[in-house]
């Protein structure tokens, strides 16, 4: 075959033809994707707020300076209020009970401290809360073994809280020192020096009803227990 015939045959070979699409590239990929899978849209990142939630609060006993229990309680409450740790503290209590006393020949209902030198605090023991309490002036330490605060027993807490919430009407009975039928003598008041017999005793209020003979008649007279004395026979 001659060179002229060879060139003629090569020119007759069809070259592949390519068409350039006028669609954008992303449109082409969209049209070509026939998988049927829709990818979920990414969720926006939102930072979750971590809250400090108290895990365990309990009653504890603090050793404090004697005769300063009430002022130390107030100082603790003030320091807690400005510390930002209020969620880890509850009630602070000076254990006490209401009793009836005679002062200056007058009966009064007063509070008496059950445990001088100690106060109760409801709290969660953490590094920050422990430091706040221990750094309060007048506070000695928590009660517990080997320096570790020990929670109070449930029955102890119940008994002390009950005493603290009792009203004057539930004050302990007075020991008047007399019995029904006992002969006594009035030593104070308008019936002074008169003798009589104990008829009734009000142990809560400390009053004694005495039957006294006045103008030949037996008359019941209510007196304070300290206004009479026993008659020695």
Structure at a glance:
With 233 residues, this protein is of the alpha+beta class. It contains 5 helices and 13 strands.
Protein described:
- This protein has 233 residues and is α+β, with helices and mostly antiparallel strands.
- Among the domains are: 58-170, NusG, N-terminal domain (Alpha-Beta Plaits, 2-Layer Sandwich), CATH 3.30.70; 183-230, SH3 type barrels, CATH 2.30.30.
- 22% of the residues lie in helices and 31% in strands.
- The chain contains five helices and 13 strands.
- The chain has helices spanning 3-10, 25-32, 69-83, 127-134, 154-165; strands at 58-64, 89-93, 96-103, 106-113, 118-123, 139-142, 144-145, 148-149, 183-186, 195-202, 207-214, 217-224, 228-230.
- A five-stranded antiparallel beta sheet has the order 12-11-10-9-13, with no helix packed on it. A four-stranded antiparallel beta sheet has the order 2-5-1-6, with helices on one face. A two-stranded antiparallel sheet has the order 3-4.
- The longest helix has 15 residues, at 69-83.
- The termini are far apart.
- The model is unreliable at 25-33 and 45-54 (pLDDT under 50).
